[in-house]
Every structure is written in structure tokens, then in C-alpha cells.
Amino acid sequence: MQEFIEEKNQVPLIYDVDVLVCGGGPAGIGAAIRAARLGASVLVVETQGCLGGIATAGMMSHWGGRSSSKVMQEIFELTYEKAKDIGWTDENGCGHDAIYHDIQKIVLEQMFAKENIKVLYYTMFCKAVVENGSIVGAIVENKSGRGFIKAKRVVDSTGDGDVAASSGVPFFKGRETDGRMQPSTIMFKIGGVDYKRAVFPPSFETTIELPKGEIQALGKERLPFPAGHVLLYKQPTPNTVCCNMTNAIEIDGTDAESLTKGVFICHSQIVPIIKFLREYVPGYENCWLMSVAPLIGIRETRHFEGIESISENDILEAKYYENWVVRRAWFNFDVHNLTGASLDKTGVQKNWKQQSDYTIPYGCLLPKNVEGLLLSGRNISGSHLAHSNFRIMSVCIALGEAAGAAAAISIKQNKRLRDVDAKDIQAIVGE
Ligand SMILES: Cc1cc2nc3c(=O)[nH]c(=O)nc-3n(C[C@H](O)[C@H](O)[C@H](O)COP(=O)(O)OP(=O)(O)OC[C@H]3O[C@@H](n4cnc5c(N)ncnc54)[C@H](O)[C@@H]3O)c2cc1C
Question: How far out from the chain centre does Cα 387 lie?
């Protein structure tokens, strides 16, 4: 392949902040709010035109799992408070963990404004600037051009770990044995569902007998491969359902061509899925397409080398780490079939046995070879199977809170991140 040598480019310094947060998804939200509340100046750069990441731009159905995150509780309360007068109806029977996407975006912006957190939308983190083993800032690009943001600490909450990869933190992708990554999905919403007669299967293991056959078996038989499972969720607005049913396999979310291929595949499945629901599922006879998520949902990409790393055994044993920075984490092994529809043979959803929760140690947020940088959200250091659990949003937001607290504390105490005592982070993120 030919190379093109870019002209020497003098990049202006556009911001000088305490904490730069790259990515405004669940982890970025937790990180920015915690760091700002501890007095740090915080800037968030985000490629989308909203906060929330997969929760909003990815049009996720609900905040799943459990954790100690206090910010998540605040989000639930503020969102419900704002939404209840304009259409959130408890009569639907959907919990307050359901996501009212557009209200959620507004609430998050108001929370950020209250904390004086600066946000740059439509701005992409491009390149880490590392000096003598420490990250000192990042090059970003947006409509205004390229710019350098100087930062005392950087939180990588891009999901894929773009900052850590650019900083030279070693990583592997996907499953340890063959590098395969979990499938990707574009979420979409339908209206016109008759809730009184409709069914809402929340897991692959939920089977429901319908007049024309069992719902998951019908899906496998009738939907275009690799789609083939039926996952449907009530929404806060009347007669609306969020569908987690498109499915693209062998997609690499860190490769532009592959990402685009994933979008084309998922988009092509939407109309056949709606036709399927209208024909086979009672209550969906008159459903129609309301909206399609602008951001493709990438479940898994890079796993980084941290000072510590969390494994599936830690989760199965509900391990208690003294240096925890997230506690009361709980979810299942949500591994989607890496070569087709439904659940992978290593995955467990509804039939998950471990009811005790686990902790995540501070070292999972600290990349082995780069100072000044924190991993947070689904890109912390952990195994493929552990990741299938901690990638749930309630845990990701708690990971963000821990990263934001660590960043601010290390600045205040004038310490390297790796020298911060986890007890000081625990005192902030609390029980
Ligand atoms: C299809 C699907 C279904 C899921 N279902 C559920 C569910 O029902 N409940 C649940 O709790 N969890 C669910 N999850 C898991 C969960 O949504 C994610 O694991 C979680 O959102 C990860 O949080 P994060 O903050 O690490 O990353 P993300 O939510 O991915 O946020 C990353 C943010 O960074 C931005 N970004 C990325 N790269 C850059 C860059 N270079 N520069 C600037 N910004 C950048 C992105 O635009 C995004 O806003 C699902 C995931 C998928 C993909």
C-alpha cells in the first residue's frame, strides 16, 4: 500500500484541563461527574451529538445489572422526575431502569451543566501524547480542525480503549482462544404494540409458546441469519417496544470498513424483523418502525493489560478485593453466540446461579505501562468472559466514578495514579 506523508502540522493548544475524559458513555459520565465534584476542571470529548453512549445514541432498552453506583441512582431519579409529566407511564409496567432516550440525553446535559463540566460534541479523540511514559494530553479533531488538549490525567471511556491503544498499552481482542468478538447490534424501536396481548421475552433462555410455535424457535427458523433471536423490552412511552434483535457477527468495532459492514447488515434485518413480529407475535400485528439507533452497538473489542486483571473465576467466586473501587457488581455471563444467533455455549442469562456480588480492584483501571491514564467502562483489564459481565452499564458507570475519583485524588495529593490508596477512592464512591 502506498503511503502519503501528511504535511507538518502545528496543532494549537485548545484546552488545558485537570481531567480529560474521552467518550461520554456510562463510564465517561461517571468519571466526569465524580472528578468535577472533587474540584477538578473536566473536559469530555464525544464523537456523537449527545451524552450517554450506548444508553442513548445506541438506544439501549434498560440499565442492566447492579452496582454500587450512586450517580446511576441520581440519573434514574432525575430522569423519571422529568419524564413523568410528558408520557412516562408506570401503568406500562416498565421499571425506572428503562431508558427514555431523548429525556435521558437532556437530563445528562443538565447534570453536566450543574457540575460545570465542559463538553465538546462531534469531536474525536485521535492520538495520545505520551512523554516519558506518562500521557500529557491528546490530539482531537472536529469541525474546528485538529487541536491539542493538555491534561493532568486522561480517562479512557471510549469503550474500545482508543486512548490506551494509541498510548501503546498492550491488548488482545475478543476471546483469548481465537480473537473472535461478540456480535454487534443496532437497536430499534417500534410503536403500535398492544401491550395487553403482547409478550416481552427479555433473555435468549425465555421460551414462549405462541399460536404458530415457540417464539425463539420461530425466530431461528424465520429471521435472516445471523439474526434469529427474539428480545423485546417495554419502554416508558405507551405501546412502544425496544428491539434487541439485529445481529452482525465477525465485526471488528475498531476497523472502519468492518464497522460500516456491520451497520449495513443490521439495517438490512430491520424490516424482515418487523414483518416477523407482525406475522407471528400476538400484540405486534400493527407495529411500525419508530426509530433506529444512530450508533451501532459494539459489545466487545480490545482487552488491555492492567496492573491487575479481573477473571471469570473472580466473578464466579464473588471475590472480595481489599483494594476494590467498585463493589456490589452483579450480572451474568452475557456472551452472545459468536458465530450465529442467540446465546453462546459459554453464556448464561436467566439461569445464572451466583446471586452474590463481586468487587473490582483498582489495578484493573491502571494500564501496566502508561502513567496518567485510567481505563474505565468496558475497556478495563479483564478476560473475555469476565468482560461479558462487567460490560453491563450499571457496572460501567461505577467504573467511571472510580476513575474520576482516582484522577481527582491523584492531582490533589500530587501522586502518581498507581500510588493512590484505593481506600481514598472507596471513601468517595462509598458503599
Ligand atoms: C447491542 C447491545 C446491547 C446491550 N444491552 C445492554 C442492556 O440491555 N443493559 C445494559 O446495562 N447494558 C447493555 N449493553 C452493554 C452496555 O451498553 C455497554 O457495555 C456499555 O454502554 C459500555 O459503557 P462504556 O461507557 O464503556 O462505553 P459506551 O457506552 O460504548 O460509550 C463510549 C462512548 O465513547 C464515544 N467514543 C468512542 N470512541 C471515541 C473517540 N475516539 N473519541 C471520542 N469519543 C469516542 C462513543 O461515541 C460513546 O459515546 C449492551 C451493549 C450492546 C452493544
Answer: 11
Residues enclosing ligand 1, CB less than 6 A? 22-28, 45-48, 53-54, 57, 60-65, 124-125, 157-159, 162, 185, 244, 297-299, 377-378, 391-393, 396
Torsion of CA 348, 354, 357, 358, to 10 degrees: -80
Domain 13-177+300-429, CATH number (from 3.50.50.60, 3.90.1150.10, 1.10.10.10, 1.20.1180.10): 3.50.50.60
- Look at the pTM and tell me if it is higher than 0.90: yes
In the chain, what are the domain boundaries? 13-177+300-429, 188-292
> Do 283 and 195 meet the contact criterion of CB atoms below 8 Å apart?
yes
Residue whose Cα lies nearest atom 27 of ligand 1: it is: 159
Distance 23 CA to ligand 1 centre (A): 9
What does the pLDDT look like over 92-138, one tens digit per residue? 788 889 999 999 999 999 999 999 999 999 999 999 999 999 999 99
Q: Which amino acid is at 293?
A: A
Helix or strand run (H / E) with residue 375 = strand 373-375
Torsions phi, psi for 358 (to 5 deg): -125, 170
Please identify, by atom number, the ligand 1 atom nearest to the C-alpha of residue 140: 42
15, pLDDT greater than 90: yes
Give yes or no for residue 7 having a pLDDT over 80.
Answer: no
Distance CA 431, CA 428 (A): 9
